[in-house]
Amino acid sequence: MKHCYECHSSASGKSKGGLKVDSLEALLRGGDTGPAIAGRSLDKSLLYEAISYDGDYQMPPKGKLPSEVIADFRNWILAGAPDPRVTKINEDVQTEIDIEKGREFWAYRLPVHHDPPEHKNTDWPRTSIDQFVLAKWNEKGLTPVDDAPAQALVRRLYFVIIGLPPTAEESQRWTARMDSSTSDAARQQIVFELVDHLLDLPQFGERWGRHWMDVARFAESTGGDQNNVFQHAWRYRDWVIDAFNSDKPYDQFVREQLAGDLLPIADDQEWADNLIATGFLAIGVKLVGEEDQQKYFADLVDEQIDTTTRAFLGTSVACARCHDHKFDPIPQTDYYAMAGIFRATETHYGLLKAQARQATTLIDLTGMGPKSGQPELSKQEYAELVQARDDAKKTLDDAMRKIRSGENVFRGLLRKYRSDRDETEAALQAVLTSGQARVFAMGTQDREFPLPTRLLVRGELDKPAQEVPRGLLRVLSPPGKHTLTTWTKDAAVRHEKTDDGLGASSYFSDSGRLELAQWIASERNPLTARVMVNRIWHWMFGRGLVRTVDEFGVSGDPPTHPELLDYLANQFVEDGWSTKKLIRQIALSRTWQLSSKHDDKNFDVDPDNQFLWQMNRRRLEAEAVRDAMLVVSGNLDSQRPLGTLLRDVGEGNVGQNVFEPVIRAIESNHRSVYLPRVRGVLPEMLELFDAPDASLVTGSRETTSSPLQSLYLMNNPFVQLQAKGFADRVQQFPPSERIKQAYLIAFGRHPTTQQQQLAVEFMRNVSESRLTTEEKLIAYCQTLLCTSEFNTID
């Protein structure tokens, strides 16, 4: 290998073509064109092809190796490619963490079954949730405030469940029904009907899918050093929305995102959907300009571990990359046990090789039916495809000329250029024969040859220690059942399903990723149900039973109502992991239907409202504010757009050929969940009103208040346009009715006497200003859009 080290080694500081050859792992991982060697396969070993001068690559470029050396390489590869070099391996790293003691922490114990507390006051509680909450009030000396008024409750239900305000007609109809009910039971039946109506609307998935996308750090670009656009991330976005609308059981929701490509399927469409679900692992931040392939791969795996464990387990396992976890019972070996699973996984996210050193292929879903969302090509799109084919061919021809002239640096790009030409040619043929282009998606698949994994001292690539078998977190696994080393395909087929928490089944994955998904989605995992129940509670109340929704470890907050959390977690599983059932249960509780009225005595005891004696008043998220403006203006396009709004921008680096102003200027009347989500380049309104940038798991958004928000509401053309649409709707009514109708459209209620008088006075003084009556009405409507009531869930 000495002939290769000059250009492909850590010692030389070079990794041409992204390839290093100074470790077996580097050879197995390969460079820009894939793995350099494949044990026992000469055909799949590009290194052998290159040194044989039998293909596109000819290495070393200065002259062919002696035939006996080539023969040695041949025999070595056929023998399985064992690494003959003496590599300094550090002493085994030991841990001082007491796993058994760690299992005593509340979050690492299985949820306990609790019966709802009994109370002498049987009139107040409506549900089991109320019984648990009432017990805490009795303990703390708290009393509940009044129930929310019907109009406020209707508005609350609409925003929380579908993220949109009720129309004036809807608000009046449901409010009137509740106010005219003759008993508490009758009112509850009306609330039940409204909740079910909202849960059945397609807008539910858009609202709650957006919540999950915060957790899944969904974005349409890599972020990081070059910030390349993901043209196919939108398929995962749509999959999430559809999953919530269909009330996909949460345990299946977990499995599909982590190992959908490995699950049994009924047909091709299910296969395509499952592959799209694994986009969860592919859409994270990536430093695609990184030259060191091994460092890039290690960082990619680390990001996948961090997202997986924070999203599904509320646990920061990535803290153990360099040393044992400082707070939680997670030794460094557990981190590398999980890393082995993701190191055995290929992540496909695309990008252009000419613009991103760490580009990959995409997964071809062609022929998976209309649900894939691929439209027939227009004449313009067909012309663009022809252009792409011709460009690829020209680039290939240029590269070949330079190679023939001795410019060997271009050899490493040759295979990619040929691939571009072949793919576009195949796409053209598909158009000519079936009217559809090829359909691609981001996602994951198992590697053909899983890579060995060694613990890295202080996380440094050049300080390997003991080899670590693939496995799971010990603190969350039954004793002695945290590794996958004893599993083989034959053994897995014979293995009967048990309650050991591993979710054993009659199918098996080479990577262990399926077993990881089964373990996380198991009812025997102490964290999974608790974490999701807490997320749902947080999205319903604006605050979780565990405040730190992404951190259930020692450094997180303990639950304010531990018995209630366990009760709901157990019921969540018993109800088939149904998100909609849990939302319905919470919405029907009297606790959730309380008003946000202040109470001095309760405030003195519990100023932070930890124990839920009132409903938390909270500001709407950025997307809900924008969507509400589109609703009241009559401009909302409720249809799902096809694909991404970045489609016309094209692929490439955001800072170079996809300019930020171009992305920020993209506007649409579709719901905000469909707006471009480029890391670092969010639409202005979303950025100002605290939408996350999707670099990390974000289960709880920040809520800030700044002068820039007010200036935006007063001066931005988008807000002014919605104010005009709002005014146009109001102007259709007689002048005497306009103020009342404006309040009904914006807030679902009539104005107070004072508000009516102020509005009439404002409109009457037209002659004292330079504004016309129409302009004054637009200004007044914009004022309503800027109020805290419009931007708040009460």
From TrEMBL:
Signal peptide: none
Domain DUF1549: 129-346
Top-level division of the source organism's lineage: Bacteria
Cytochrome C Planctomycete-type domain span: 4-63
Domain DUF1553: 512-762
InterPro entries, alphabetized: Cyt_c_Planctomycete-type, DUF1549, DUF1553
Name of the protein in question: Protein containing DUF1549
